[in-house]
Design brief:
4 strands, 4-stranded mixed sheet
Length: about 200
Amino acid sequence: MKTAATKLARLFAVLCLFPLLTGASSFFVQDNAGIIDSDTAKMVNQKNAKYQKTSEHPIVIVETLRNAKRTQPDGLSKATKTVYIVINVQKDGTKRAFLYSSSDLHSQFTAQVRANILSHTASKIAADDTVAFNEGVQELFKISVTLVDQSMSFKKDSLDLSSEELNRVIKPADLRIPIMCALIVLIVALIVFLRYIVKRQLQK
C-alpha cells in the first residue's frame, strides 16, 4: 500500500512538472494574446522550474494581454520574489511591454532600471514579425532573471547576462553631456561668426 502511494505521489509530481519541462502552457506563461512561441515558453518554464528547486522560490512570469486597460497584475502588492513581464496588444496590433516587480525586488528593479530595460527591448517587442517579437521577449526575460539571480546570489547559468552586457542595458551611456558640449561649441562658433560679420559691416 505504501509503495503504491509512493508511486502515485511520484506520478503526480511528474504530471505537475510536465508543463514546466516541455514548454506547454503553465502558470509562468499566461499567453492570453496567443503570441508567445514554444521556444520562449520553454525558456520561461524551465528557468522557473529551476527556481522552484531553490529555497527562495523566485518567480518570473510572462503574460500577454489583448487591449487591456489595466496591465498591473492583481495581487502584485502581496506578491514576494516575483517579476511580471506583461505585453499588452492593442486593437491595432501595437505591442507594448510593462515590467513589474514585488516590493522586495524594488532595489533591483528601480523605476529607472525598468525604464532602461523596456527602452532597450522596445523595438523588438513592437515588431510585427513573430520571430523578432519573441526574441525581444526572450531578451527581456534574460535581463530580468539576471537581476533576480544577482539579488538572490544565485550561480550564473546560460541565461544570465555578463556584467558588461547588463550594465549596457540598465546603465546606458548618458548622452546629455556630449550633446550639451556640442551645443555650447555650436553657440560659441555662431557668436564668433556673427561678430566677424558685424565687424566687416562696420569696416565698410
